[in-house]
Design brief:
This protein is an alpha/beta fold. It is built from 9 helices and 6 strands; from the N terminus they run E-H-H-H-H-H-E-H-E-H-E-H-E-E-H. It has a 6-stranded parallel sheet with strand order 3-2-1-4-5-6, sandwiched between helices. Helix 1 packs across helix 4 and helix 4 packs parallel to helix 6.
């Protein structure tokens, strides 16, 4: 028996939570230290300096924005060259070890078991996104949106809007109010909210500005699908 107004998902069960859209770096995998070290090494190789504060400014931002900032710090490469260099270094680390964020993999597995569609929405390159996706069971992500697929990256809403549109094409009847975005950075959180999606903030390396109305958890560790369903019910109820 289905709930009124709630589409039946592929698993055959009605769910208030219809889909989850995930950020990758810092949310699913703890790759930010890889990116920061790659930035420092690249700037140093071009005779400049790059501090932790400089690196934190780029967390969650689109890669072309990050590349331009590194150019300002002295990196004498085109934007595409900067991105390729950074992504190559991060990929090299990931091929040695995938550093999962606490609770993320478990939640993804539970969502997959209940056949609730997930999308990956990352500003990393397509190859990096596919590398992470390949370490999870096939079909974990029904949509993958990477930074090289959009003309305007986070904090612009385009990445999350594209991911939602892709999910909607595969699962007609999805409502944004019954989806949930999970983000560790404020630019990513802003992107999701500007796209009209309820968002869960799970800050990692950089704190968010104060906002009493924001849904925020310290960690995904110990959290379950039931917790996500509760958030979705609150969002869906507020949208009616």
């Amino acid at each position: 028996m289905s709930l009124p107004g709630v589409p039946v998902l592929p698993g055959g069960s009605a769910s208030v939570l219809q889909a989850v859209l995930w950020d990758m770096d810092g949310t699913i995998v703890d790759t930010e230290p890889y990116w920061i070290q790659a930035e420092k090494d690249l700037v140093a190789a071009h005779g400049g300096t790059w501090t932790d504060d400089d690196a934190e400014e780029l967390i969650g931002q689109a890669l072309d924005y990050s590349a331009r900032r590194l150019q300002q710090a002295g990196v004498a490469l085109p934007v595409e060259g900067v991105i390729a260099s950074l992504a190559g270094e991060v990929a090299r680390h990931l091929q040695q070890e995938v550093p999962w964020r606490p609770g993320a993999r478990e939640l993804l597995e539970e969502l997959a078991a209940e056949d609730i569609p997930c999308a990956l929405v990352t500003m990393s390159t397509g190859p990096l996104a596919r590398l992470i996706a390949s370490t999870l069971p096939e079909g974990t992500f029904r949509s993958v949106v990477s930074g090289d697929m959009v003309s305007r990256g986070k904090p612009h809403p385009e990445p999350y809007q594209l991911a939602f549109d892709q999910l909607s094409a595969a699962f007609p009847g999805l409502a944004k109010s019954r989806c949930l975005a999970v983000e560790d950075s404020y630019p990513g959180y802003t992107s999701a909210r500007e796209a009209g999606l309820p968002a869960l903030a799970v800050p990692h390396m950089v704190p968010f500005p104060p906002d009493q109305g924001r849904i925020q958890w310290d960690t995904l560790a110990g959290r379950s699908l039931a917790d996500l369903q509760e958030l979705a019910a609150l969002s869906a109820g507020g949208a009616q």
